[in-house]
Design brief:
Blueprint lengths: L1 E3 L2 E3 L1 E6 L13 E6 L34 H5 L16 H6 L4 E10 L3 H13 L3 E7 L6 E9 H11 L2 E3 L2 H9 L9 E3 L7 H8 L9 E3 L13 H13 L42 E4 L3 H11 L3 H4 L7 H8 L1 H33 L12 H32 L1 H4 L13 E4 L6 E4 L2 H31 L13 H31 L4 H34 L12 H42 L14 H12 L8 H20 L6 H23 L14 H22 L10 H5 L4 H29 L5 H16 L15 E3 L16 H6 L2
Antiparallel strand pairs: 1-2, 3-4, 5-7, 5-11, 6-7, 8-10, 9-14, 12-13
Length: 834
């Protein structure tokens, strides 16, 4: 140790590991000698303590925790077993010998509620957690922070009892499969020279390695075959331990906490915390998933600090994002990056076709032939969007298989804290449970949707009035044409009503009283999306289709009488307004709220105990926990993602439904999506507390929403091409255009062409969906292998049923056993800029 400015620091061999389910022999670690600055996380792994004025405070340990974890309980900063630089620890040794206690969670309770804090502490310690208690802030706003650690052995015990899925080690699974009688050795090929060998099939079908990404319920008898939990998996196991009933027997018991209700303690509340007459304070708390500051900074530098990755959405580190932020965020950023890549391709094609329309004869003239590039671009966008959606579904299923998301998502849904149920006898198992009568909820749904319909009719009236304003020449504002004024009013109306509609959707969904988070999120999404989609695109549909029907050619869309130009200009303004409002809400608002919170804390003078006290043991990691609570805001992983997906949905609507008149929509969407990746990533890593993990298997209802919008886009783009852009003269007999008396026949022909092309594109998108199925052959094969391994290697099923049905010859497929893929990355190399 060396002394600098009176503060003792340590030089140690630092080793930070993502805790990934890695293959034996393929573990990557980053080690470097570096001095730990004051205020940084303590991740130095040795068996000595830093010298200082005082020793470590002893952590509370439950008697059931074995003595092998005593060192970790006494030293909360120890994260993994000490290993020399370059040493590769065997996976079984990591599971059984590493005295690892990860302090991932913390519970914050007002300082005036010591009885409630003591109750929480007893409950979590009874469940097997290691705890450490300290204070933050000061005065009437002082809080107590209870950090929670779960020893590795206790995690595995709970996993056994609760049926938690784990990932099997590829090398050990291969050895166990080869030891069966008869073995599953994958060492044969067809004797016939025309037969397909395993290597040929793997290459042709792009199959997974034979033993990679295999998941099964953790079993005590086969514990040595499972890899250690990655960070996000460990967080899910701990969250299950916190929420599991304390009345369960043995290792299955939990703390019996309602994690969804633990969000009521804030750093700077409007009213200070006070005890009542009996001396007890409020029984409120906040559960925090703590940031790992070294890993967070490394991920931020590797991902958001590298502009080359941001500008290449197809190269996003999705696996690293998932390990740190969880599957929900992994699927979200996969979704955004997939569509950003598609928008870039569509945008480049649109620019080329736009240049063709402006520069190359005969497209740079006038008439129907001039609009052919726009129509062609619209058709290509319809096809590309369908392909992109199917591509995303395939990538999502691949990630689902790699992350084992299906096995986790089968858990029983949690009850919402706001749910108000009535005692009812279950018709399924006969037990008394809290539920809400269906007939009562259907009545509330009818009321909620009736309110939304009435408001949408009122919104239609406002849109009609704004568009009528364009035709009132005697009422003008000096210096501002009526058509520009109407667009300005429309932009304000769209953003304002969208904000009000989002608030109303939350109020009405809460009024419907859904029991689980999944049900609540589903119905909130439906209300929010339907309301905002109709409100956002109603002005455009009015200009495109209602305006030409209400007015003659010389009166519609004043002053140019060109509805295509008017529609294109309006879309540009409204799209820009939508993007600006979203940027302000997502980038500026969190910063402003954080600034106001800090100003309030400074004004109240309660920040004294933020950076730790002089001589306080483990001041570094205590400081980080305090800052996570005080400086960062809570991220609602139920309603937060809905807001982000709604923004993406509105962008997708502009691209799929109006490309025929606004070819720049895909390129603008690409720029906005790229910026949104950076903003959302920075927000989650630097401005918000770490999101609590959700057990999800995909993005849910958003797949269906985008699917429906792509179908609507087929119809709207074809309608724009024939009724606004008007390429119909290319297909019609010239006499229909020359003879005014034949206008009726021309309209009939246009309607016929519109129906024919709409049905054609709808059929084409359906064919694309059938050709590019969501689940690829590789995923289906690996799931089938997983079932066999679960039954034969981990279960008692005989392998004698698997026999050769034709002559076989020896074959060496050892190179197909494992791909050696590692989802983690060298965090220390990332910190060094390597």
């Amino acid at each position: 140790t060396t002394a600098r400015n009176g503060v003792r620091t340590c030089r140690r061999l630092c080793h930070v590991n993502w805790g990934n389910e890695q293959h034996a022999g393929s573990r990557r670690s980053g080690c470097t000698h570096r001095r730990r600055p004051r205020g940084a996380a303590s991740y130095c792994h040795n068996n000595t303590t830093p010298s200082g004025p005082s020793s470590h405070a002893a952590a509370t340990r439950h008697p059931s925790i074995p003595s092998s974890h005593a060192a970790a309980a006494r030293h909360p900063s120890i994260m993994s077993k000490v290993a020399p630089a370059g040493d590769m620890l065997d996976e079984a040794e990591r599971l059984t010998a590493a005295p690892s206690v990860h302090y991932d969670y913390a519970i914050v309770v007002p300082k005036v509620s010591p009885a409630y804090l003591k109750e929480l502490k007893e409950r979590v310690e009874h469940a097997g957690f290691v705890t450490e208690e300290f204070d933050a802030l000061s005065g009437q706003y002082e809080v107590s922070v209870l950090k929670l650690g779960a020893p590795q052995q206790r995690l595995m015990e709970f996993a056994f009892a609760q049926g938690v899925p784990g990932r099997l080690d590829p090398a050990k699974l291969q050895a166990a499969a080869a030891a069966l009688d008869p073995p599953l050795a994958f060492n044969e090929r067809p004797a016939d020279e025309h037969g397909w060998s395993l290597g040929s099939l793997t290459e042709k079908l792009a199959l997974f390695p034979l033993f990679d990404y295999i998941y099964a319920v953790v079993r005590p008898a086969k514990i040595d075959m499972f890899t250690a939990f990655v960070d996000t998996t460990r967080h899910k196991v701990i969250l299950r331990m916190l929420c599991a009933s304390s009345k369960l027997p043995g290792a299955a018991r939990g703390a019996g906490l309602d994690a969804r209700a633990m969000d009521r303690v804030e750093p700077a509340p409007l009213l200070p915390y006070k005890a009542d007459k009996s001396g007890d304070g409020p029984r409120i708390s906040t559960l925090i998933l703590l940031h790992d500051h070294d890993k967070r900074d490394a991920l931020h530098k590797e991902w958001l600090g590298n502009y080359k990755i941001i500008l290449k959405p197809w190269e996003q580190p999705i696996n690293h994002i998932r390990v740190y932020l969880g599957e929900q965020m992994g699927f979200y950023f996969l979704f955004v990056s997939t569509w950003a890549t598609s928008y870039l391709i569509n945008g480049i094609i649109g620019l080329v076709l736009y240049a063709l329309m402006k520069l190359v004869p005969p497209f740079n003239g006038h008439g129907a032939i001039h609009q052919v590039p726009n129509a062609l671009h619209a058709g290509l966008v319809i096809i590309m969007c369908s392909i992109t959606l199917q591509k995303f579904k395939r990538q999502q299923e691949v990630c689902n298989k790699r992350w084992g998301a299906n096995q986790w998502a089968d858990a029983k849904p949690r009850v919402r804290p706001a749910f108000e149920g009535l005692p009812m006898t279950s018709v399924v198992h006969g037990k008394v449970e809290l539920d809400f009568p269906d007939w009562w909820r259907r009545g509330r749904q009818t009321v909620a949707w009736s309110i939304i319909v009435v408001l949408l009719w009122a919104d239609l009236g406002v849109v009609a009035y704004v568009n009528v304003l364009k035709h009132q020449k005697d009422e003008q504002i000096k210096g501002l044409a009526n058509n520009h004024l109407s667009i300005l009013i429309a932009m304000c109306q769209v953003q304002g009503v969208n904000a009000l509609g989002s608030i109303l959707a939350r109020i009405l969904t809460k009024y419907e009283n859904w029991k689980t988070d999944e049900e609540y999120a589903h119905h909130l999404t439906m209300k929010d999306v339907i309301f905002q989609l109709i409100n956002t695109f109603l002005p455009q549909f009015w200009v495109a289709f209602i305006e030409p029907m209400r007015y003659d050619d010389d009166k519609m869309c004043p002053p140019t009488n060109n509805c295509k130009g008017e529609l294109s200009f309006q879309i540009a303004i409204l799209f820009a307004g939508q993007a600006g409002y979203s940027l302000a809400k997502q980038a500026v608002l969190p910063v402003v709220l954080r600034f106001l919170s800090q100003r309030r804390i400074q004004r109240l003078g309660c920040e004294d105990n933020l950076g730790g006290t002089e001589g306080e043991p483990d001041a570094d990691w205590r400081t980080e926990a305090r800052k996570d609570f005080v400086e960062l805001t809570e991220y609602d992983n139920i309603e937060g993602p809905i807001e982000d997906y709604v923004e993406l949905t509105l962008q997708f609507g502009y691209v799929t439904m109006f490309t025929a008149v606004y070819p720049f929509a895909p390129l603008i969407s690409f720029a906005f999506n790229t910026l949104q990746i950076w903003m959302d990533g920075h927000k989650l890593l630097k401005l918000h507390r770490r999101p609590l993990p959700l057990e999800v298997r995909n993005i849910g209802i958003w797949e269906d929403i985008f699917q429906i919008l792509s179908k609507i886009g087929c119809v709207t783009n074809v309608a724009l091409c024939f009724f606004v852009v008007d390429i119909s003269p290319i297909f019609l007999n010239p006499r229909y255009e020359e003879d005014g008396r034949r206008d009726y026949q021309a309209v009939k022909m246009k309607l016929g062409l519109f129906i024919a092309f709409s049905v054609g594109f709808l059929l084409l998108t359906t064919v694309i969906e059938q050709l590019f199925t969501p689940v690829s052959t590789a995923v289906r094969v690996q799931r089938a292998r997983q079932t066999i391994y679960q039954q034969c290697v981990l279960g008692d099923r005989e392998t004698s049923a698997f026999v050769n049905e034709a002559d076989a010859a020896p074959d060496d497929n050892s190179d197909l056993a494992s791909g050696g893929h590692d989802d983690s990355f060298d965090i220390m190399a990332a910190l060094r800029g390597g």
